[in-house]
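Listing S7. Sequence submitted for prediction.
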Amino acid sequence: MYLGLDLGTSGLKAVLIDEDQHLLGEATAPLTVQRPQSGWSEQNPADWLAAAETVMTAVAAQHDLSAVRGIGLSGHMHGATLLDASDEVLRPCMLWNDTRSHAEAAAFDGDPQWRAITGNIVFPGFTAPKVDWVRVHEPDIFAKTRKVLLPKDYLRLWLTGDAVSEMSDAAGTSWLETGKRDWSDTLLAASGLTREHMPRLVEGSEPSGTLRAALSARWGLPEGVIIAGGAGDNAAAAVGMGVVKPGQAFVSLGTSGVLFASSEAYQPDAPSAVHTFCHAVPDTWHQMGVILACTDALNWYAALVGSDAGSLTADLAALQAPGETLFLPYLGGERTPHNDASARGAFLGLSHATDKTAGTRAVLEGVSFAFRDCYDALRSTGTRIDSLVAVGGGSRSDYWLSLLATVLDMPIDVPAAGDFGGAFGSARLAQMAVSGAGAERATPPATARTIAPELALTDAFTTRHAQYRAAYSALKEAL
């Protein structure tokens, strides 16, 4: 058996699989976020350990765990967990969506060496500017800091006693030389840090340590259970969906939207706001285009018109050509390709004929055009996308999938029912770490159906996408 632990922002999930990767059991424990000031987002790392105790105790109550051979870890990226010389936590962990370090991020990003070495913009959500914020605003804590760990790696420290990270999560710190898959001494020095402050690095599919004997005895696991390197949340989800080879990609229609593509080459393009990170398997990288409002935009519109998202999309018939109304989904800024925190949404082309259904179609079209921006940005770097799998709540709408397939001009596969998230992907990584197997263990899920582009409408949507891009530029100049 193999266990996967996925440390999410709102909860920690455990899954148990067998040698054939069949799901045997699962458990979850909720987590909360503290926001003591505007733009701040924190969690107490002790809560992660309590949640791990809860899910492990629950799984152990369901199953005899004496056959467990490995545990994989995944989790939300970019968090700054600061430890002293005794591995005690010095302050709450600043999370991925904590933006207090915007000034520090801008200062780092203004120095060309950061993009040149990491291949990415230094976003306020990344780890390095958060730690620099502590240096500036909490100097006593910075002076005591002896180790900086990402959230799932603090969980690993508790499980194994070892400070270790892996490539996919480390790439989101702004301290990794992403092409070489190693810490950058230059960037660490620019942050007032050294390699001694960093965890040891392994690949996600490699062993990182073994489970402490006391925990093995507590949960009924054998001694010597291997803890795999694991992955950041999106890379782990990609392993769960079998997106590990060049040409494979997935699109996630969740609260935010992600277009994730695997690549065998390191080919960054930081100005496009594409994230170029190491993948969880060796000699592989991945790129992500991120949009900040996906189903979030539809839910906003549903509340505006006094409905719910499911009803709005259920009322749509077959895919139609773009309507007169154009929607820009930048309700809270945008990541790819604009890197524009001040961008805001807009409806354009409103008329007496614009009813609730027309507005729904415009919202779905606007979000799909945002995905087309991500697709174009990834393709511009040389990344190939041959196959695309859709996941997330928005993928339940066949109308939206048909629209997205047409806007991207490529088929979209819908997987058969199953759990392909970070916990399942990290359990797969545990199996690789134990067996020495590679990416071949990360097979794609069975396809329930494939949504093909409506070829008669592709030209119309291509033209409309160009108008969408022009609208953003015009409004940015005007407002």
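Caption to Listing S7: primary sequence and predicted structure tokens for the chain studied. The radius of gyration is 22 Å. The mean pLDDT is 94.
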